[in-house]
Structures are given as structure tokens and as C-alpha cells.
Design a protein that fits this description.
heterodimer, A: 334 residues, mainly alpha, ABC transporter involved in vitamin B12 uptake, BtuC, two-stranded antiparallel ribbon, 2 strands, B: 508 residues, alpha/beta, Rossmann fold, six-stranded mixed sheet, 17 helices, 24% strand
Chain lengths: 334, 508
């Protein structure tokens, strides 16, 4: 632990270490090291086009990871983020393509569906006291099945909705600064991350999110309606999954009902690499973003180096274990 | 007859506490030797030394006449000393036999377990106890009393000649206690020596041969159980030179009754508890561990469900089914276990003070007004003299006394006019203790109704305007505070088994 001087405010540096920023620094340093390493290894890596590809690949996973971060900080876990994303994409497909509604309605429908499904998970966890792992495992399977049922197991294309693919693939930034064609998907990720950061750091909901993960019983005994707030967190996370659903549907210009399984684990991996504690109470959205970037850089870099797909997966697994081990070592010292 | 155990001049220090001072204790074969004393007298520490859990700092232990070096629970087991803890430590999903021989299972070749031998050995032990129990029963399905028997069997399986029982009857009913006593008598007849820790006078009369009393970590004396009257044992426990620093009792006869509890019930833990507290009054709750005081507090606060009972706040019936209802009614509860139930220890002082009232700091769209929170936190840090480098300090880094002040600040800011303090000074050093006491007195002076649950009699006497005493879930009496009540009076009610007394004390 850092030495505490009883008369003065701890230095900014000491506070950063206290609030888990150390792990973020560690993650950030690893990200920089990875970038440097891959640039040296391959001249093709540090190309603008490749960098944009990495960012584009981060966008969907990043948004899902932000959703997972919220739930994990409460001391829970959400295994349904991946299939919920797909389900929301399918709902958008039904609303826009099958029903022919205007674009904003489809987007709102997707986000609303996400929030509603999150509320279901939240109810299972808070009211029915089902452990989050089980509750969201059940939701994961239910949503996977429902996606296939509603879509008739076929992809739904958005060809009749002009501009839908631009949600993710277009570049507002590129229109202003042509040299920087950052896709809108990445822009949306950053907006979502900023908003989530704000909610966590500055709002009642955010404070209770941390408090629930820190000591739920103490919060309950403070007269706080913990069930309500927990359900609110799961709902918010669900809504964010809805945004991810729009992003992935826009990128593929279709809702692919078979997609989604496995995304939840990538999201959780990004959260963990970013220094959020799986036991709750501690975590940051910035850390999660860095974690998601590390995963994307790693996948991309290994592909640029022509490492076989199978080995990429092995390396990713090893990185997760290393990241968490580093965190454990730090904690033991603290 | 040689003594099974002879402990002389035992000394033990913990950081800041001299837990045992030159304590002596001996145990003969075939004897039940009761060890008594108030909470914190050092009984458990002494027994943990004998069972090898704590190392001693000084003194000598002879087992069967030979000097023994008890450097771990294993060493004690090897010398035939077994301990049955108050909290049973059995694995509920394993069978009786599997529990008894955990870690020592008879094996076949290739690491396979010999379940047949395992069960046969368990049956053998039960026969020596004259106990009928199927070794293949899953422990979780047994009653607490039966689980206790399994613990005893487990201790005997180490060929224990000395058996330490720490409040074995705390969770048992009368029939179960009779069953336990039958087993104890049988073990006694076999020459096993039993050290029996209990608070209950009537049990001692039934089962004990000798009684040793401890007080404040020191040996007081050993007397025969049969020929010594209960009152003299109690005065040995309390000590004659009671430093009676009592409370000034204000005249509250005109004050409004703020909280009234009628017919509070839950299972065996709370049985028909009735009391009331007036504005500006401090009502102390005395009793021995497990008397049900915390349970009463949690039931009033809505933290645990209750079977029945009416709670009136300011004369109006109040439906409290969860803590948020209680808080709305202006009741605050400060748990005895601050770390688990009172504080989000990983979060800062500012958040913890605001935790019960975040809605007041919430602007539009639920955005927190940090500046207001900071000011409020600073305000209470000043008012309650919370020693912290800043309001952003994580509360886990504060001392116990300062953590307690943070919890108090939380409830004060919430404007609770009924405050229930459960062991407010547990784990807090002496200096901070008197500060907390001063704080509680001031809260009452300001017109709040204060309930203080404490296991330390001097604390109860120092603070309370009236003293409610509980034993085994019953309110055995309400005594007036001040000089007319002695510690002996309280101890008498706290060890009173049968409900021979109606709650009183409403006459003021």
C-alpha cells in the first residue's frame, strides 16, 4: 500500500495506483509494446488502412465489452451480450426490412429490445436471486434460439434501407478530415465509452454500480433498493448490446442469426485485460477499451505476420492468463 | 489421580491487548470442568492455546504429567486433545463417516477409498458413545444436535482424552441438550476429561463437577459446581470492585415514545419481544452472545424477515419489510460487522457518507453533485472528527474508530431519529471508544432515540438510561439505568433460562 500521510491529500500518483490505474498503465504499456513489436516485424502493420481495420474490428467488441464492464463491476457477469447483440440485429432486420419502417425506428427498436432483455436478466438476478452466471447463460441460449426462430435461420439483408450500412462503414470524420477516414463504428464506440464512463463516474447509477460490487449487503442495509439498481445496470448493459447489434448489422449490411456465440467471452477477456476485477467493485471503461484494442491488435498483428488462425487463438488465451496474473501479483503486493 | 492437563502461568499477548495474564487451569480424568467468564474474559483464547491454534507467550502446559509443546492443532490432536468449536465445521454434503475421517480415509490400492472400512470405523465410535446414527447419512440432513454428536465422534476418532466444548448447547433445544448430556456422562464414565465452556448457569449445575472463572484475561478462582451458589459464581465473573461509572438519567417521562416494538417473533431466535424507546433516550441491550439482540435489531430494521410483531414509529404502525422501508421511517442500523454490513470498504469516505442518501445529491438525469457531496463529507469529517487524509480516502485504510464514525455520519446525514448501534465499539481502541460514547450521548441529547447493543457490561452501564436484557431470544427484563442496577442484576437476567419474568420498566 502507498504510505498515507495523514495531514495531506495523497498525491495524484498515489491515488491513481489506489484506483487501479496501475493495471491500466500496465495494459496501456502492453498495447504500446505490441504496436511497436508488430511494426518492427512487418512494414505492412503500421499502415493507415491497417490501423483503421484494427479500429473497425475493435468497434463491435469494444461496445460489447463496455456493456460487460458495467455488469462485472456490480460483481455479476453477463454471458448473454453476444447473442443479445445478434437478437437485436435480427429485430432491427425485422422492423426495417420485413416491416419496412424508417431507419430511426429500427435503431430504437434494437436498443429497446436490448434494454428489455437486459431487464429480464436483471430480474432473474436481482428478484429471483439466480446467480448471474446461470441467469445470463440461460438468456444467452434463449436469445440464440429466438434469433434463429424469428429470422427463419436465414440472414436478413438491409438492401431496402438506404444508408443503413453507413452507420458503421461511413466516415463522418473522413468527410471533414479526408486524411483520417475513421469509420463511424469507431466513433460510436468512443461515444458509447465516453457516455458509459460518465455514467459510472458521475451519476447515482454509476456510484451504486461500484457500491454493489464493493459490498452489496452494506448498500442494502443503507436502505438502498439494491434490486432496482441492479436491474437498471443490466438494462443499461442490454441497451448497449442493442447498439452493438446495429453496428454489426450495419457492417455486414445484414443480420446474421447464427452469429454471436463466442463474442461474450471476447468481451469478458477485454474487460479482464483492462483491469476490471471479476469480483466486482473495481473497473474502468478506459481499461476495457485498451483491453479490446489489445485483443484486436493481437489478432490483426498475428494475421499480418501470417501466423495460423489456430495459433492466434492460443496466443490470445495465453495473454488473458498473463494479464490477470499480472493483476494478481500487483494485488498481493498492495 | 494424575491430571490429564495442567496449565500454569499461561500468558498471551495480542497487539495492543494482554489477553491472558498468568492463567492456571487443570483437568482431571473423568471430570467435567466448566470454564466461565464474560465475553472477552479469555476463555476461548485459553482453549485455543490448549488445542494448539495459538502459541502461548509464557507458562507451562503438562499433558498426562509431561511437558507438552503444542505447536499446532496436529500436535494437540496427537496428545489426545480435541476441540469442538461453537461454529460447527462439518462438510454438509458429505456423509457422517466421510466427515469424521476427512483426510484420514482408509484406502485400498491405487488410491481407491475403502468406504466399507470407513463406515465400520464410524459405527465403532458411535458404539462407544452409545449413539445410534447411520454413518451413511448426509450431514446436512441432520439436526444441529446430531451434527454436534458427529463433531464429538470426530474428536473421539483421534482417541481424544480431553474434549473441549465451546458453548455446545448454544443452538440446542431442551431435548437435544438432554441427549448431549447423556453422551457427556458416558464419556466421563470412560475417563475422558471435558472442558465445558458455557454461559448457562442451570447447565453447569446439571453437568459440571468444577467451575473455573476467568475475568479480563485473568484467573479468578475454581470452585465446586454443586456446592457453590449461582450468585457467587456471577459475582466472581463480574468482580466485586465494579467500577460503576453510570449514566446520568434525564427525566424522559414527558418525552414522546418514538419507537415501539410489540410481539416481535422469529422462530427460536426472537420470542415475543416488546419494548419502546423515547425521544432522547438511550436504551441499552445487554445479554450474552447468541441471546438474540442482533436478531431483534435486524428484524426491526427489515434486514431479516420476521414471523410476527408490530413496529410503531411516532405512534403510527409502520410496515417494514426491507431496509429501505426502515430508512424511510427514520431508522438507522449500525451493524456490529462494519466491514461486511456497514461500509463499502473499497470506496472512499465521501461515497460512504452519502451512500444512504445519494438521491439528495442527484441532479437531473441522475448526475451526481460531487461538490455538494464533498462539502457534506467535509462537514461531517469536521463535526465527528474523522481522522482521514481526505474525503477521497478509501475507508478500508481508516482505523476502526474512524470507520465507525463514517457509518455514523452516513446515518446522521440521512436524518435518522432512531439509531440502532450494534456493538458500536467492537474492535475499537480505548481512546476512540470514549469518543464514540460521547458521540452517542450527544445524539440522545439532540433528541434522537438511541438503542445500543453491547456485550460489554461496563459499556451498557455507562451509556444506558434503561437496560433491556435478553436471554435465548427472550427479553428477560428491562432494568432502570444508573446506580440502582448492578452488573449482577444484569447477569442474573442474562442467564435466566425460563421466562419467569414479564418485561417491565414502562412505569417511568
Amino acid at each position: 500500500m502507498t504510505a498515507v500521510n495523514p495531514t495531506s491529500t495523497p498525491s495524484l500518483f498515489a491515488r491513481m495506483i489506489d484506483t487501479g490505474a496501475h493495471q491500466k498503465l500496465l495494459a496501456f504499456a502492453s498495447l504500446v509494446l505490441l504496436l511497436i513489436g508488430f511494426s518492427i516485424a512487418s512494414p505492412n502493420f503500421m499502415q493507415t488502412s491497417n490501423m483503421i481495420a484494427i479500429l473497425q474490428a475493435t468497434s463491435v467488441n469494444g461496445v460489447l465489452a463496455v456493456a460487460a464492464t458495467l455488469v462485472i463491476i456490480t460483481g455479476g457477469i453477463d454471458l448473454s451480450v453476444g447473442t443479445l447483440m445478434t437478437f437485436c440485429a435480427v429485430i432491427a432486420g425485422v422492423v426495417l426490412t420485413n416491416l419496412g419502417m424508417p431507419l430511426p425506428v429500427g435503431v430504437l427498436a434494437a436498443i429497446g429490445t436490448g434494454a428489455l432483455c437486459g431487464l429480464c436478466s436483471g430480474t432473474f438476478v436481482a428478484k429471483m436471486k439466480i446467480p448471474p452466471f446461470i441467469a445470463t447463460l440461460g438468456m444467452m441460449l434463449i436469445l440464440k434460439g429466438l434469433s434463429l426462430v424469428i429470422s427463419g435461420t436465414r440472414p436478413i439483408y438491409f438492401n431496402d434501407t438506404p444508408g443503413f450500412d453507413q452507420i458503421s462503414r461511413g466516415s463522418l470524420i473522413g468527410e471533414v478530415i479526408p486524411a483520417l477516414p475513421i469509420p463511424n463504428g469507431v466513433l460510436i464506440l468512443f461515444i458509447v465509452a465516453l457516455a458509459a464512463s460518465y455514467v459510472l463516474g458521475r451519476t447515482v447509477l454509476g456510484r451504486y454500480t461500484f457500491a454493489l460490487g464493493s459490498n452489496e449487503e452494506a448498500v442494502r442495509l443503507s436502505g438502498v433498493n439494491t434490486d432496482f439498481w441492479k436491474m437498471a445496470v443490466y438494462s443499461l448493459a442490454g441497451g448497449i448490446c442493442g447498439i452493438a447489434g446495429i453496428l454489426i448489422a450495419s457492417r455486414l449490411n445484414s443480420a446474421q442469426p447464427a452469429l454471436g456465440l463466442g463474442y461474450e467471452l471476447e468481451a469478458i477477456a477485454a474487460v479482464v485485460i483492462g483491469g476490471t476485477s471479476l469480483s466486482g467493485g473495481r473497473g474502468t471503461v478506459l481499461g476495457t477499451l485498451i483491453g479490446a484494442l489489445i485483443m484486436a491488435v493481437l489478432t490483426n498483428g498475428l494475421r499480418v505476420l501470417s501466423v495460423a488462425q489456430e495459433w492466434q487463438t492460443v496466443v490470445t488465451g495465453a495473454i488473458i492468463i498473463l494479464a490477470v496474473y499480472a493483476d494478481m501479483v500487483r494485488r498481493r503486493k498492495a | 489421580m494424575t491430571d490429564l492437563v495442567r496449565m500454569t502461568g499461561i500468558d498471551k499477548r495480542f497487539p495492543g491487548v494482554h489477553a491472558l495474564k498468568n492463567v492456571s487451569f487443570d483437568l482431571a480424568a473423568g471430570e467435567v470442568h466448566a470454564l466461565m467468564g464474560e465475553n472477552g474474559a479469555g476463555k476461548s483464547t485459553l482453549m485455543k492455546i490448549l488445542s494448539g491454534i495459538y502459541p502461548k507467550d509464557g507458562g507451562e502446559i503438562l499433558v498426562n504429567g509431561r511437558a507438552a509443546e503444542l505447536d499446532g492443532p496436529r500436535a494437540a490432536q496427537d496428545l489426545g486433545i480435541g476441540i469442538i468449536h461453537q461454529e460447527l465445521s462439518l462438510m454438509n454434503d458429505l456423509t457422517v463417516a466421510q466427515n469424521i475421517f476427512i483426510g484420514r480415509e482408509p484406502r485400498l490400492r491405487f488410491g481407491r477409498l475403502d468406504e466399507t472400512a470407513l463406515n465400520a470405523q464410524a459405527v465403532e465410535i458411535f458404539r462407544s458413545m452409545n449413539l445410534k446414527l447411520d454413518p451413511k447419512t448426509v450431514v446436512g440432513e441432520l439436526t444441529i444436535a446430531r451434527q454436534q454428536m458427529v463433531e464429538i465422534a470426530k474428536a473421539l476418532s483421534y482417541r481424544s482424552r480431553v474434549l473441549i466444548m465451546d458453548e455446545p448447547t448454544a443452538a440446542l433445544n431442551d431435548a437435544e441438550i438432554a441427549e448431549l448430556f447423556t453422551i457427556i456422562r458416558r464419556l466421563k464414565a470412560d475417563g475422558v476429561g471435558i472442558i465445558y465452556i458455557s454461559h448457562k448457569m442451570d447447565e453447569l449445575k446439571q453437568i459440571a463437577d468444577r467451575v473455573t472463572v476467568m475475568r479480563d484475561g485473568a484467573y479468578v478462582g475454581t470452585v465446586g459446581a454443586a456446592e457453590t451458589p449461582v450468585s457467587s459464581i456471577i459475582s466472581m465473573m463480574v468482580g466485586r470492585e465494579v467500577t460503576n461509572e453510570t449514566a446520568d438519567i434525564p427525566d424522559l417521562s414527558q418525552a414522546e415514545t418514538v419507537l415501539e416494538v410489540r410481539g416481535l417473533n422469529r422462530g427460536r431466535e426472537i420470542r415475543d419481544v416488546n419494548f419502546s424507546v423515547r425521544k432522547g433516550e438511550i436504551l441499552g441491550f445487554a445479554g450474552l452472545m447468541g441471546a438474540g439482540r442482533t436478531e431483534v435489531a435486524r428484524a426491526i430494521f427489515g434486514a431479516d424477515p420476521r414471523d410476527g410483531g408490530e413496529i410503531r414509529v411516532h405512534g403510527k404502525p409502520c410496515a417494514i419489510s426491507q431496509p429501505s422501508d426502515a430508512v424511510k421511517a427514520g431508522i438507522g442500523y449500525l451493524s456490529e460487522d462494519r466491514k461486511h454490513f456497514g461500509l463499502a470498504t473499497g470506496m472512499d469516505v465521501r461515497t460512504n457518507i452519502a451512500l444512504a442518501s445519494l438521491d439528495r445529491f442527484s441532479g437531473s438525469l441522475g448526475v451526481l453533485k460531487e461538490e455538494d457531496m464533498r462539502r457534506t463529507a467535509q462537514d461531517y469529517i469536521g463535526k465527528l472528527d474523522i481522522r482521514t487524509p481526505s474525503d477521497r480516502q478509501e475507508v478500508r485504510l481508516l482505523s476502526g474508530g474512524n470507520q465507525q464514525k463514517v457509518v455514523i455520519a452516513k446515518w446522521l446525514y440521512r436524518d435518522c431519529d432512531i439509531l440502532i448501534f450494534d456493538e458500536p465499539t467492537r474492535g475499537i481502541d480505548v481512546g476512540a471508544k470514549s469518543e464514540i460514547h460521547k458521540l452517542l450521548k450527544n445524539l440522545a441529547k439532540e433528541g434522537r432515540a438511541v438503542i445500543v447493543i453491547s456485550s460489554e457490561l461496563p459499556e451498557v452501564m455507562r451509556l444506558s438510561h434503561r437496560i433491556a436484557v435478553m436471554c435465548e431470544g427472550r427479553l428477560t427484563g428491562i432494568l432502570p439505568g444508573g446506580e440502582q442496577t448492578s452488573q449482577e442484576d444484569i447477569m442474573h437476567l442474562a442467564t435466566l433460562r425460563a421466562p419467569s419474568m414479564q418485561p417491565e420498566g414502562y412505569q417511568q
